[in-house]
Amino acid sequence: MILVTGGTGLVGAHLLYKLISNNETVCAIYRNEHKLDNVKHVFSCYTENYESLFKSIQWIQADLLDIPLLSDAFKDITHVYHCAAFVSFEPNKYHLLRRTNIEGTANIVNLCISNNIEKLCYVSSIATIGNSINSEPITEDTEWNPEDDNSAYAITKYGAEMEVWRATQEGLDVVIINPGVILGAGIWRYGSGNLFKKAHKGIKYYTAGSIGLVDVKDVVSVMVTLLKSDIKNERFILVTENWSYKQFLQSMAKAVKANPPKKEAKIWLLQLVWKLDWLTHKLTGKRRQLTKQLVASLNSETNYSNAKIKNAIDFEFTPIDESIVTVGNLYLKQV
Predict the structure, then answer these.
(1) Which residues contact 255 (CB under 8 A, 6 or more apart)?
(2) Does the pTM exceed 0.85?
(3) Which of 153, 173, 271, 293 has the fewest C-beta atoms lying within 10 Å of its C-beta?
(4) Rounded CA gap, 81 and 71, in Å?
(5) In sequence order, what are the residues at sequence separation of 6 or more whose Cβ sits closer than 8 angstroms to the Cβ of residue 136?
């Protein structure tokens, strides 16, 4: 039996759909009952039979930090996809990020080892890949620099990867994927789905940087292929194409039939805004919307290479313009 953590997230829900469609026996962990609707919304993008598919999954309510409940979820499990994570770029969420992403992953790793799991697939992020030198393409071998001004999210996902690599020293076979920004339909309140929602309402500005993009269906296809393969103890960047933010935001706007952004938000203005945002947070406790690290990311040009995964499994990615049109059409149908 296969265990999926984070089954109510974008990747987890799409992964569950693919596994169930392949007639796999699946157990999935969820933390909040109200998020189970996310899975149905994702399934409904692809089939009218989503209720019966949803009911074929064995659901277990558990928290990554609750070891007794997690232990129950590992009964009769042979393979694990660890998709669960806490995603936030708010610096004040650092300790929660550490508990969920690092301690939670350590718990999953330890249970995999103690239950003799055959193989673990961990969903990491390109946030754990280092920055390029001399504008060279970023690869899996580009070293992480702990002295950089890394975001709280990146630091904790890197720490989680270290727990997964520890598992390889204790005899567990693993594969790690490092996806870029994942485009997919069905969840519109947060993540990339929320970007389509914002594009529909109207985004006025774009930034000077670039972004690595990948279709969620490609992500889960790679995950399934890697887990079934003989490949082990390797990591793979999953980025289809590197686009400028201008191209990305304008393409999203077109896909949802909205006005595209036409003005560039200059970096000096964004630097002023993040400082005002920090002051507002300190005075009122309001959640952070913009951080120093996020401003730097929005204005940095990156070029991620997907050559390793293409060569390893002879994989061809879905073109990003095709993905954006597909997700945009599904957004217009569901909202």
Answers:
(1) 196, 199, 324, 325, 327, 328, 329, 331
(2) yes
(3) 271
(4) 15
(5) none
